[in-house]
């Protein structure tokens, strides 16, 4: 069906009839004028007349492509009875012809392209598509799975060392030695020696050192120092001095400042200050100047032993030296010494002195001040230091909250102690073993044993390590609550989880049994561990 796009043909038929009538009845002059007028009218009508447009399968759509109008609009007036949908159907532009190569998939109306791609972009200007991420991941996984077994053994050894699992580390190292490509390396033996020394295995460390020498690996001062550290950590000073003598006899393994610092630390921990003086003299003979770490070790040892005069001499030597200037660790040692002694004025004086030397405090320094003020119940100064930390953008750490909780625990102020603990958790700080020890002591001092039980359950739920110090706090709380049955149950629990009791543990138990007159219980403890429970306590 077509559509009428101009005046109806009936108007032209009526015009022809009218013109014939006028020609028949009018005069010649008048007929000429009428004919001229009719011809002009017909010419004007011809210019406004437009033929019907009938859309067929073979119709040429050249005129349709030449006209441009908006979607839904028709350029010519239509009758009210003609539906709009047919007009839009009639005006639909034809499909574009195929490309020269005959690829029909390049039609703009039918092609689906990805976001960011333009359909008219030429082939040579497009960027090459990247491989999908999943394919890259598959290749990486396949490459990781295709690694040689020897590389896996090496990585497994590093993992065991990082996990501080010396048994499995030695097993994997034995597997590594069986490989044909194995070659002894100094770094591997160094890591294993340090691991065995920290794990309390000095004899295995010595065996590993001898095995290294048998395999042709040349010893170095660093390897000797690692083995000496293993002996010193376990209190074997005689063996450490034997190794030091071997180093002095070796032309390529002479001891350095790190070797002497390791031995001096062991002597300080054992309170063998006479040997410390001998080590200083030996270092001077070999022209080895002590560094700041060495001086800080000795300074801390003199402070713990109460030898303040010797400590002042060491500090004066540090101030006059060019190789061992005091640092923030020196500052922390001095402040901690006077703070633990309760000498607040001396602590504040030395704090100002170190600031005058150009040493700026750190978070640990301010935590030492908070702990010292808290022990003396100087809450105003404790709060001032905490505000000072906020002002200088020093973060409040777990140690900061532990010092505040400990201060309230010693005073038996359970309300403020619990409030501080809740604030600690609200700020995202993770409590540690000391946190719960202070809480248990505080609730025990306040007589709130039911909250002690709650803290034990909370620590277990949070996965906090329950070491000997933790169990000692619980035992002391049971003694304060006069619940000996619960105390014995906690002590049995320590044995079940293989938590080794120390001298404080047996002191708490002996004190509780002596108060109740249970000498038989004390005798059992003395038979169980004679070194920690002296015989004179049994007969008291």
Class by alpha and beta content? mainly alpha
Query: What pattern of helices and strands is seen along the backbone?
Result: HHHHHHHHHHHHHHHHHHHHHHHHHHH
- Number of separate strands: 0
**CATH class placement of the domain at 142-255:** Mainly Alpha
Q: Strand-residue fraction?
A: under 5%
Low-confidence stretches: 1-19, 21-25, 51-64, 78-91, 99-108
Total helical segments: 27
General form:
extended
Overall pLDDT level = 80
Biggest β-sheet description: none
Organism: Oryza glumipatula
Domain Pentatricopeptide repeat-containing protein-mitochondrial: 383-491
Signal peptide: 1-26
GO molecular function, one term: mRNA binding
Keywords, please?
single chain, 540 residues, mainly alpha, Serine Threonine Protein Phosphatase 5, Tetratricopeptide repeat, 65% helix, disordered N terminus, mRNA binding, repeat, TPR-like_helical_dom_sf
Structure description:
Among the domains are: 142-255, Alpha Horseshoe (Serine Threonine Protein Phosphatase 5, Tetratricopeptide repeat); 326-395, no CATH class. It has 540 residues and is mainly alpha-helical. The chain has helices spanning 9-25, 28-48, 62-66, 84-91, 133-145, 149-162, 166-177, 186-198, 202-214, 221-233, 237-249, 257-269, 273-285, 292-305, 308-320, 328-340, 344-356, 363-375, 379-391, 398-411, 414-426, 433-445, 449-462, 468-480, 484-496, 503-516, 519-528. It is built from 27 helices and no strands. The protein starts with 8 loop residues before the first helix and ends in a 12-residue tail after the last helix. Helix 1 (9-25) runs antiparallel to helix 2 (28-48), helix 8 runs parallel beside helix 10 and helix 10 runs parallel beside helix 12.
């Amino acid at each position: 069906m077509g559509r009428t796009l101009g005046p109806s043909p009936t108007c032209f038929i009526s015009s022809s009839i009218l013109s014939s009538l006028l020609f028949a009845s009018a005069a010649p002059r008048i007929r000429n004028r009428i004919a001229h007028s009719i011809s002009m009218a017909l010419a004007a009508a011809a210019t406004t007349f437009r033929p019907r447009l009938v859309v067929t399968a073979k119709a040429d759509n050249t005129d349709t492509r030449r006209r441009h109008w908006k979607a839904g609009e028709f350029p010519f007036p239509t009758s009210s009875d003609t539906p709009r949908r047919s007009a839009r159907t009639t005006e639909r532009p034809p499909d574009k012809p195929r490309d020269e190569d005959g690829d029909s998939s390049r039609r703009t109306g039918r092609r689906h392209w990805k976001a960011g791609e333009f359909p008219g972009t030429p082939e040579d200007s497009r960027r090459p598509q990247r491989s999908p991420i999943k394919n890259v991941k598959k290749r990486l996984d396949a490459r990781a799975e295709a690694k040689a077994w020897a590389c896996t053994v090496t990585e497994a050894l590093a993992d065991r060392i990082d996990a501080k699992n010396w048994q499995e580390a030695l097993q994997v190292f034995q597997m590594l030695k069986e490989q044909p490509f194995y070659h002894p390396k100094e770094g591997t033996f160094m890591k294993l020696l340090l691991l065995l020394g920290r794990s309390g295995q000095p004899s295995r460390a010595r065996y590993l050192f001898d095995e290294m020498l048998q395999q042709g690996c040349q010893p170095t001062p660093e390897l000797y120092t690692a083995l000496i550290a293993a002996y010193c950590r376990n209190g074997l000073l005689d063996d450490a001095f034997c190794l030091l003598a071997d180093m002095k006899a070796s032309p390529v393994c002479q001891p350095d400042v790190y070797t002497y610092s390791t031995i001096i630390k062991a002597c300080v921990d054992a309170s063998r200050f006479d040997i410390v003086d001998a080590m200083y003299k030996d270092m001077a003979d070999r022209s080895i100047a002590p560094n700041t770490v060495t001086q800080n070790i000795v300074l801390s040892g003199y402070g713990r032993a109460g030898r303040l005069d010797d400590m002042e001499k060491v500090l004066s030597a540090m101030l006059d030296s060019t190789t061992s200037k005091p640092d923030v660790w020196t500052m922390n040692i001095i402040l901690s010494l006077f703070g633990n002694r309760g000498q607040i004025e001396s602590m504040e004086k030395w704090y100002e002195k170190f600031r005058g030397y150009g040493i700026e405090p750190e978070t640990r320094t301010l935590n030492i001040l908070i702990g010292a003020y808290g022990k003396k119940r100087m809450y105003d100064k404790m709060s001032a230091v905490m505000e000072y930390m906020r002002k200088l953008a020093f973060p409040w750490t777990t140690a900061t909250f532990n010092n505040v909780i400990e201060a309230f625990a010693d005073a038996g102020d359970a309300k403020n102690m619990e409030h501080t603990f809740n604030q600690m958790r609200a700020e995202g700080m993770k409590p540690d073993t000391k946190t719960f020890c202070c809480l248990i002591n505080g609730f025990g001092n306040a007589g709130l044993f039911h909250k002690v039980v709650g803290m034990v359950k909370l620590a277990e739920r949070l996965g906090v390590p329950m070491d000997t110090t933790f169990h000692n706090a619980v035992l002391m709380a049971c003694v304060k609550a006069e619940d000996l049955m619960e105390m014995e149950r906690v002590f049995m629990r320590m044995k079940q989880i293989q938590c080794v009791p120390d001298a404080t543990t047996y002191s708490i138990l002996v004190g509780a049994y002596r108060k109740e007159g249970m000498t038989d219980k004390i005798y059992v403890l003395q038979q169980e561990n004679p070194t920690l429970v002296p015989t004179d306590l049994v007969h008291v």
